[in-house]
Amino acid sequence: MTELKESPPPPDVSLPKEPAPPEAAAPAKRGLAWLGLIVLVATAIIGSNMFSVRDRLFGSAIPEPAAPAASRDAFQSVPTESSAPTKLRSEPWWQDVASLRGTGTATTTQFTIDKSAIQWRARAGCESGRLVARAPGQAKPIVDTSCPPGAVGEGTGDGPMRVNVEAEGPWRLKVQQQIDAPLVEPPLTAMTAPGARKLATGTFYKVAKTGTGTVTMFRQPDGRTSLRLQRFFVSPTSDLEVRLSTSRAPRTSRDYIRSRSVRVAIMDVTAGSLNYTAPAGIDPSDFHSVVIWCAATREAYAAASLKVVR
After folding, report:
1. pLDDT at 294
2. SS3 234
3. Which CATH architecture has domain 93-179?
């Protein structure tokens, strides 16, 4: 007898689903379209900061206008020329606040850290034994060092304060605060003294980074060469130098590198009106431009061609 074998079950074939009728899909499409439009409008409003919406939601990336610093010493008054508030900010730099001295254990005279300061520090020096300096509200000493040579310690907080010092002999503390305000210095006395003379002027332009403002080269009565940068700004960073170059109009970092140059000063402040005195013995007629050079990245940030004053 022939054995009958069972046939396997037929495959499960699903029938294709019928597409949704147009009248059912239309509301969903209209909803997505409206949602996309709302997102687009919201992005435009936030991106353009219309009605200050972005600032209220996320805070402003643009600092509030503030008066520039008038001196590298915090206790100097602000001259009329520099008192107008500005949103420009410099690379953070250290401004002197107080120079304090004493002998043995003592409490310093009062000094004030500005509320806009990023931080402050104390450079301590002493002759023998050990020096410990403590500030109110700080659990650890600002400075705890053997003498000599001393040490540097960072402090926090702002407003009026005093430091308690424990030492065995004479000590000194130089207090500085770190700020990012532009510095607007008055011209050096030697720039306007009898016998001083303007040698050349120039306007800063972009090379690798943004640079604006003007520069004036002076011959001082003592024969030294000095530079005054006015209404100056360069993209903030550390490791910048002010240099005199023999290039007449460097447009690239390569142009600058190919020319002879001399360093005038290290630039710690990157906005404001600033004075620099060149090294003794240089001949200003050898140089035709001022270059803001970044030694770390080997880039010419900005430059100004010097035009001789007749």
Report:
1. 97
2. strand
3. Sandwich (2.60)
